[in-house]
Design a protein that fits this description.
Oligomer: single chain
Radius of gyration: 21 Å
CATH architecture of the largest domain: Roll
CATH class of the largest domain: Alpha Beta
Number of domains: 2
Low-confidence stretches: none
Distance between the termini: 75 Å
CATH topology of the largest domain: Flavocytochrome B2, Chain A, domain 1
CATH superfamily of the largest domain: Cytochrome b5-like heme/steroid binding domain
Number of helices: 5
Strand content: 15-25%
Largest sheet: 6 strands, mixed
Number of strands: 6
């Protein structure tokens, strides 16, 4: 009698796996769409050169800049959108966040692409 349930169990496992894969692929598409939207929003204006003292003037949730790997980024619009939560970005405001960014993302291409859309200049 229990042998009749084995094909049903296997079918449920397969359906669950396919559903999980579809969900994961949809999440990746959403992330890619977000990067594309951010790239479209980026202005092609002149980028400046800033000191760490300049970056430190932008240390709040409503005006958040960070220096990361020699670049200066305005992270203000990214705070509510960050998948890891607002606090991960809030801790970078007004600082050199290179160690935190590299430690968390380790040079991930997707994270680099998002960061590039937020660049306002270079660190002097």
């Amino acid at each position: 009698m229990h042998h009749k349930f084995i094909p049903v169990l296997i079918g449920c496992i397969i359906i669950g796996a396919v559903g999980g894969l579809a969900y994961w692929q949809n999440e990746k598409k959403d992330e890619q769409k977000l990067v594309q939207e951010m790239q479209q929003q980026q202005t092609a204006g002149d980028q400046g050169t800033y000191s760490l003292a300049d970056v430190a003037k932008h240390a709040s949730g409503s005006d958040c800049w960070a220096a990361i790997n020699g670049g200066v980024y305005n992270l203000t619009t990214w705070i509510p959108r960050h998948p890891g939560g607002k606090q991960a970005i809030m801790g970078l405001c007004g600082t050199d966040g290179s160690a935190a960014f590299n430690g968390q993302h380790g040079g991930g291409a997707e994270q680099q692409a998002i960061l590039a859309t937020l660049k306002v200049g270079t660190l002097k």
